[in-house]
Specification:
The protein is an alpha/beta fold. The protein has 4 domains: 96 residues, no CATH class; 206 residues, Leucine-rich repeat, LRR (right-handed beta-alpha superhelix) (Alpha-Beta Horseshoe); 90 residues, no CATH class; 165 residues, Leucine-rich repeat, LRR (right-handed beta-alpha superhelix). The protein has 22 helices and 15 strands. It is elongated and about 130 Å long.
Length: 569
């Protein structure tokens, strides 16, 4: 065609020139004869020359693929114009394959594409004739084995139907591997391909990769129906990850496994929200009803030792990897559990993880819950867990501290942003005249020091990390703690105090502790950072403060820009 486009206008121009301008007749005849001979020889020899170069293209492409030279293979593919020259591709295709070996035919070029890179890199697409040419070779084949990788292309449903027609002709096939990952297949294409597979009665080993397509439950059900018909199946592998499968699709595939019961099987369902299908699969695998390797985070979670009694309503599980938290939170709402015991101390749960776990427990609603969260920072998740209607115990210092607050105290904390705590035991605030009135607020019976050590650290952490609402009033009773409260504890409290930028009233009872000069200085410096403070009461009587430090503190307190202040030294 290019020769015609080039030479016909040239000949016409030569005749016009001879007609109007004159000139040598011989030159004119030669101007017409040479392109005519070119065109004639091209039409006569083109098919023969193409037949001669087809083996070269086939062998060369096979060699480039074997060497892993993707760039040169793509260049050769385009130079040969395989995308559009169906006949040349058909002629070259036999030279891309190896010879017959016994009753089996091994397709090297396809296998190498599978190992090296996808067929799509060579331009295979639904609308291109090369796919039809490729599939034409299936019609008369008596293959017993075929491995084909057409992944990462744009076959779409039309291409899948073309492939399905070719696959359905392989009546003798016993071992087949199809990789159609990311091929834009939908439910219609998957259904056509499944129907073709379902009539291959001699199939013993089947591997189908349909990852990242749009099968949905309809496509999965069609594939499951086809697999159920293959009664000679011994080895089955199905990959439908990220293919929009739901609960119904997972249950259909489970029924296919029950129907065929292959000796070896693998089912990859990652990235699919299969709901209670995960529970059904896990129970079937745990009971030995089916034998299969299932890759799905929720199914894998349900197969752990801790879930062995889940059907009886009990769960006892310990996790050490944060990656397991998501599957756990997905699994819990699917089960009917009465007792849940989770050891998550090594997990570094974090705020988001704590909130996710709480939502899962709310959906599960067990009668008894035991959570060991260690002492990691879970941010506002501590407040949510403390307020949640979860029956049981949460082992986490901040949560345990917040749980001690009564409902009216929580309400006061959230609505009025007021926190009044006595960490020393009942009645001490009124006894020392600091105006704390904490005895009726928080009765921590038992050893004062024991309760202090249990709650003081989480309180400091909650204040410093701003886990609580910004306080307007803070009344804190730490008196009579003796050696339990010294400079180290004062320095631990100070960063949390200075974070309360909206604090208007502060009362600190530090009567009869081991507070020294350094600790007192830390407290004063933290108070300096409270710009909205208008009322301040501090009791530092009977501490280990030098006279020099007392004078210094008194001067520092008097210098504070606070309207109402009272200090006892």
């Amino acid at each position: 065609y290019l020769l015609l486009m080039e030479n016909i206008p040239q000949g016409i121009c030569a005749m016009i020139f001879l007609r109007y301008e004159g000139g040598s007749l011989v030159v004119t005849v030669l101007s017409l004869a040479i392109p005519a001979v070119q065109i004639g020889l091209t039409l006569l020899l083109y098919s023969r020359v193409r037949a001669e170069v087809a083996p070269y293209f086939g062998r060369r492409l096979r060699a480039l693929v074997s060497a892993g030279d993707q760039l040169m293979a793509q260049r050769l593919w385009r130079e040969a114009d395989f995308e559009f020259d169906k006949e040349l591709f058909k002629q070259a295709l036999p030279f891309m394959r190896s010879k017959e070996i016994g009753a089996e035919r091994y397709d090297d070029i396809i296998q190498l594409w599978k190992e090296r890179w996808s067929f799509s890199n060579l331009g295979l697409m639904e609308e291109q004739p090369s796919l039809e040419a490729f599939c034409d070779g299936f019609a008369d084949a008596q293959w017993q084995w075929l491995a084909m990788d057409l992944s990462h292309n744009k076959l779409r449903d039309a291409g899948a139907k073309t492939l399905a027609t070719a696959v359905s002709s392989l009546k003798q096939i016993q071992d087949m591997s199809l990789n159609l990952e990311m091929s834009d297949l939908g439910m219609e294409g998957a259904g056509a391909l499944a129907s073709a597979i379902g009539i291959l009665e001699n199939m013993q080993k089947l591997s189908v990769n349909l990852k990242s397509n749009k099968l949905g439950d309809v496509g999965a059900r069609a594939l499951a129906t086809a697999v159920s018909k293959l009664k000679k199946m011994e080895d089955l592998s199905v990959n439908v990850e990220m293919s929009d499968l739901g609960e119904e699709g997972a249950l259909s595939l489970l029924e296919a496994l029950r129907a065929t019961r292959p000796a070896a099987s693998q089912l990859e369902l990652g990235g699919c929200a299969i709901g209670k299908g995960a529970v059904a699969l896990a129970r079937a695998l745990r009971s030995g009803e089916v034998s299969c390797r299932v890759t799905h985070p929720v199914v894998e979670m349900l197969l752990r030792e801790g879930f062995k009694d889940e059907e009886a309503g009990k769960l006892e599980l310990g996790l050490s990897s944060k990656e397991d938290l998501g599957p756990l939170c997905q699994a819990l709402p699917l089960l009917r559990l009465r007792e849940v015991e989770l050891g998550l101390a090594d997990l570094e749960l974090g705020e988001e993880g704590a909130l996710s776990l709480l939502e899962a427990l709310r959906a599960t609603r067990p009668a008894a819950t035991q959570l060991d969260l260690g002492d990691c920072d879970i941010g506002k998740g501590a407040v949510a867990l403390a307020r949640a209607e979860v029956r049981g115990h949460v082992a986490h210092p901040v949560v345990e501290f917040l749980v001690k607050l009564e409902d009216d105290e929580f309400k006061e904390l959230e609505e009025e942003r007021r926190l009044e705590l006595d960490l020393t035991g009942p009645g001490l605030g009124s006894r020392h005249g600091v105006g704390l009135a904490l005895g009726s607020r928080l009765n921590l019976y038992g050893s004062d020091e024991r309760w202090f050590r249990r709650l003081f650290e989480p309180l400091c952490r909650a204040l410093q990390a701003q886990l609580l609402p910004q306080l307007r009033e803070l009344l804190l009773g730490l008196g009579d703690l003796g050696d339990a409260f010294g400079d180290d504890q004062a320095r631990a409290l100070a960063p949390g105090l200075q974070q309360q930028k909206e604090l208007q009233r502060l009362v600190l009872d530090l009567y009869r502790t081991s507070l020294g000069d350094a600790g007192a200085t830390a407290v004063v410096e933290s108070v300096r950072q409270l710009p909205q403070l208008t009322k301040l009461t501090v009791d530092l009587e009977n501490n280990k403060l030098s006279e020099k430090e007392q004078k210094k503190l008194r001067a520092a307190f008097h210098a504070l820009p606070v309207a109402e202040k009272r200090i006892r030294l």
